[in-house]
Design a protein that fits this description.
Elements: H1 2-16, H2 21-24, H3 32-35, H4 38-41, H5 43-59, E1 65-66, E2 69-70, H6 71-84, E3 88-92, E4 98-103, H7 104-128
Antiparallel strand pairs: 1-2, 3-4
């Protein structure tokens, strides 16, 4: 009974986020290289992929942050650069101070890779978390 309720709750939550239950198990097996390839897919499609999976990551409270910027900040910066025609985006810290610069293509790849990685690691953690427990009997 408890397992059935859990499956129903998971399916309901995933449908709320626009994902079918059958693809929920596929979240752990997403291929970052294939999904986030800017040369093959184009910046716009990679950015849409990043937005899609980052929304799931935010809802699950597992959004990635690298170089002081969250994945959503990379997405916003790339979106702004595409609208303005800029070739680079600024990396800013939590005080909005510029700390570096990235090309739009690389920033789109990073946003997509961070979004997908957050979701896949979250899904993998649901089944593999016990392997990292100190009480599991393994010697580290």
């Amino acid at each position: 009974m408890k397992n059935t309720v859990l499956k129903i709750a998971t399916a309901t939550a995933l449908l709320t986020f626009g994902i079918s239950y059958s693809s929920a198990s596929d979240l752990a097996n997403l291929d970052v290289k294939k999904e986030c390839n800017v040369k093959v897919n184009g910046i716009e499609k990679v950015l849409e992929t990043a937005k899609k999976y980052n929304e799931i990551a935010i809802n699950n409270k597992v959004e990635f942050m690298r170089l002081g910027m969250k994945a959503s900040q990379y997405i916003e910066a790339v979106d702004g650069a595409l609208k303005s025609g800029a070739k680079n985006i600024d990396i800013v810290d939590d005080k909005k101070k510029k700390t570096g610069e990235l090309t739009v293509e690389y920033a789109a790849w990073r946003a997509c890779a961070f979004a997908i990685s957050a979701v896949t690691q979250h899904e993998q953690g649901k089944t593999g978390w016990k392997l990292a427990s100190p009480s599991d009997g393994y010697k580290y």
